[in-house]
Design a protein that fits this description.
It is a single chain. Helices cover 43% and strands 12% of the residues. The chain contains 14 helices and 13 strands. The chain is globular, with a radius of gyration of 23 Å. The two termini are 22 Å apart. Bound molecules: pyridoxal-5'-phosphate. Pyridoxal-5'-phosphate (PLP) binds next to helix 5.
Length: 464
């Protein structure tokens, strides 16, 4: 594989990604006789102690967005009541589509939608994005006769847009960003042609947490009568409250003419357990193209609003209940706390001269350096127990702030560890980074080789 030592990469990954692998503890076949409940619970407790400690301590970027009482025990109570529900059967459980309607409607109200807005509750951000792109593709095929659709996005947009392109045979057109890491509007303008079905704007993007110029992008979309999707997946509970929390912010939702769809996750800053996201369309024409309906099937009437068939009711119930339990007030309170931590970190990093904040983020804060290798700082932070996200082009790492970082002096510990890590790198105490070679490899290898390499790693991860 182009000179890469696959085995040494796997050895490096083994300790983090397959830490429990051993011939004694791996089940290769279903056990002949059932195993005692206590033994199963014991195994889970052992694993979860290791896995839950870092995020509980506020040392993990993103991943767990709330994770505290009273929400946790509330969700446990809900699960007990609704564990058997399936959204595929509204005839058996008509409460589930009612909850979905209400989640869609409450989310739309946060995004300044009117009564024409339609949408769905999906299983996560990726599914919301897949659905929106599939809807655009089919809508514009009928409406404008586009048979070879193209989608324009900045390179900072989430890979689920590229995945949508691969799944639904859409050509991705990737543009760069400006000096503030915002989608380059001029490049977008240049790339629009008669096959363009839509433009993507991120609010914010995952890598750098920076915000694309939604109004300018939406103006292009409106002018060309194409779709404009705002990916607000990592903002849901925060974006609507940024201004109310005293920070400057742009208009980005349905209040901006030209925005035709929005994805927003209830399972991130909506503080619901994993398994729900919302996709919203300005009108029902797009939404109609999302729905699947089988006619004349032997199994009776069959339709699905989203990608999946059977859908567990619990995540939907939990997302609905989280919106009710927290209310506008609760989300606003949490958003302000998170934004204030972001402000504290940005201000504190200014005192560490070797480090630089990438762009102008608010609560997903990427750090880079022109004076030292940022991956070595990242490595040192990992050695101190931080689980942060590595980024490339530029080499950087980020911390996505959540409720966890508003607790127990997490922000002060982050800054102190950061400062200490920079000192260690400056003094030559951190010699190499375990992940840097992998990132470095990805940036020098041709796309095809990297893809083969990554797919082999995935196969390794999910094979015994
Ligand atoms: C901006 C953005 N869009 C989409 C997604 C995909 O969301 P999910 O992982 O829930 O599928 C993410 C995930 O972090 C994201 O940050």
């Amino acid at each position: 594989m182009d000179g890469i030592n696959f085995e040494s990469v796997l050895r490096e990954l083994q300790k983090d990604l397959k830490p429990y692998d051993s011939p004694e503890s791996n089940f290769v076949k279903i056990p002949e006789k059932g195993i005692a409940e206590d033994s199963i619970l014991g195994t889970l407790s052992k694993y979860s102690e290791r896995e839950n400690t870092p995020w509980k301590a506020g040392k993990v970027s993103g991943a767990v967005y709330y994770g505290d009482e009273p929400l946790l025990s509330f969700y446990e109570k809900l699960y007990h009541i609704v564990s058997q529900t399936n959204a595929l059967h509204p005839d058996i459980w008509p409460s589930i589509p009612k909850f979905e309607r209400e989640i869609v409607s409450m989310s739309s109200s946060l995004m300044h939608g009117d009564e024409g807005v339609r949408g769905s509750v999906s299983s996560g951000g990726t599914e919301s994005i897949l659905l929106a792109m599939k809807s655009y593709r089919d809508y514009f095929r009928k409406k404008k006769g586009i048979t070879q659709p193209e989608l324009i996005m900045a390179s900072t947009a989430h890979p689920s847009f590229l995945k949508a392109c691969e799944y639904f045979t859409i050509k991705p057109v990737v543009v760069g960003f400006d000096e503030n890491y915002r989608a380059n509007v001029e490049s977008v303008k240049e790339k629009v042609n008669q096959n363009t079905m839509g433009i993507v704007g991120s609010m914010p993007n995952f890598p750098f947490g920076t915000f694309d110029p939604i109004r300018e992008l939406a103006e292009i979309a409106e002018d060309k009568k194409i779709g404009m999707h705002v990916d607000a997946i990592i903002n849901s509970g925060v974006d609507p409250f940024v201004r109310e929390s005293g920070y400057n912010f742009q208009d980005f939702d349905f209040s901006v003419e030209g925005v035709t769809s929005i994805s927003m996750d209830t399972h991130k800053y909506g503080f619901a357990p994993k398994g729900t996201s919302v996709v919203l369309y300005r009108n029902g024409d797009f939404y109609q193209n999302q729905i699947y309906a089988a006619t004349g099937w032997h199994g009776g009437i069959y339709f699905t609003p989203t990608l999946l068939g059977s859908r567990p009711g619990f995540p939907i119930v939990a997302a609905w209940a989280a919106l009710l339990l927290l209310g506008r007030d609760g989300y606003k309170r949490e958003a302000k706390k998170i934004l204030d931590v972001g402000d504290y970190i940005k201000k504190s990093v200014r005192a560490i001269t070797e480090l630089k904040v990438v762009g102008e983020p608010l609560w997903v804060i990427a750090l880079t350096s022109e004076e030292m290798d940022p991956y070595l700082v990242w490595e040192s932070m990992s050695q101190k127990g931080w689980i942060l996200n590595g980024l490339s082009n530029p080499a950087a790492f980020h911390l996505a702030l959540t409720h966890r970082h508003t607790l127990n002096q997490a922000k002060e510990r982050f800054v102190a560890d950061l400062s200490d890590s920079v000192d260690s790198v400056r003094n030559g105490k951190v010699k190499s980074s375990s992940m840097a070679p992998i990132y470095g490899m990805a940036s020098v290898l041709p796309k095809e080789s990297t893809e083969v390499f990554m797919k082999s790693i995935v196969e390794w991860l999910y094979s015994q």
